[in-house]
Design brief:
single chain, 281 residues, alpha+beta, Lipocalin, 9-stranded antiparallel sheet, 7-stranded mixed sheet, 16 strands, 18% helix, 37% strand, elongated, disordered N terminus
């Protein structure tokens, strides 16, 4: 069987690029350096409250380290039965088998909905195919940490790079790049936005947002005219934006998205409006 995934936490064929696929043969292996494992977990801000899923878990060291050092729970998925058995044995040896487990499976079919953190070291041609799955299954706020490869067409929230000599034997270069992505709330569509001020009736405006994996933009309709949203950003369940509507001046809003409703505060406005709520139309 062709190998569709590779272990973030562990093994790669010597003399080949990471995740080089070979029919029925996986060649000799070397472990990914511990310092990279630690940097990945740090980038994902993993804590004891998290459930981590490692796509291509190899000997399980990403999930095991997260459980042993940070108290997290989780599991790993790998297509090689021997590596899955090794990972489960390693978890038992490290005393975390009650918090983590490893399964043999296809990452394209796996249920990722439990995850609050995803770790991965997959080639771009593979990870790009996972983007629709990530957006459909992962909860807003879920962090994805990708080793070396960006997840196109998603926009990363943070990226760090550093040199590590041990990496040369894995990929032929000391350069290591780690990308962090945060799954945004689904805000695409039309919203009825109401601004409220003490002692005044709510004012309802039409908010329109166009959200794509690689971009987000929007506009607001006031008095029959439409004005673009500025500084529109959605990170997890947090949303912020501003708009300038002619003589009304600039208004900035910040809030939280919960399904078909958004609520928040008016950060700045020439009017006395203090709070806002938006309902999906």
């Amino acid at each position: 069987m062709k190998r569709w995934l590779c272990g973030l936490g562990l093994f790669f064929a010597l003399g080949a690029a990471p995740c080089a696929f070979a029919q029925g043969s996986f060649g000799p292996y070397v472990p990914t350096p511990t310092v990279i494992v630690e940097r990945l977990l740090d980038m994902g801000s993993v804590t004891g409250k998290d459930y981590l899923i490692d796509l291509g878990s190899g000997d399980g060291r990403i999930v095991i380290t997260a459980a042993k050092k940070l108290g997290a729970r989780g599991h790993g998925i790998d297509i090689q039965e021997k590596l899955v058995a090794m990972a489960n044995q390693n978890a038992a040896n490290e005393g975390v088998a009650d918090r983590v487990n490893f399964v043999r499976g296809d990452i394209m079919e796996a249920d990722l909905s439990q995850a609050s953190v995803i770790t991965t070291y997959l080639l771009p041609s593979t990870i790009t195919k996972l983007v629709p799955k990530f957006l459909a299954e992962l909860k807003p706020g879920t962090r994805i940490v990708s080793h070396d490869y960006p997840i196109s067409p998603l926009t990363y929230d943070k990226v760090v790079s550093f040199d590590l000599e041990e990496k040369i034997k894995i990929s032929g270069t000391p350069l290591t790049v780690i990308y962090l992505y945060v799954i945004p709330a689904r805000v695409n569509g039309e919203w009825a936005l109401s601004l409220t001020a003490p002692g005044a009736a709510a004012r309802t405006l039409n908010l329109r947002i166009e959200q794509r994996p690689e971009s987000i933009a929007g506009s607001i309709e006031i008095g029959g005219a439409r004005f673009p949203l500025r500084d529109l950003r959605v990170r997890g369940e947090e949303i912020s934006f501003s708009y300038a509507a002619g003589t009304e001046g600039s208004v900035a809003l910040r809030g939280t998205v919960k399904g078909a409703e958004m609520t928040g505060t008016v950060v700045s406005s020439p009017s006395p409006a203090k709070n806002w709520i938006a309902q999906r139309r």
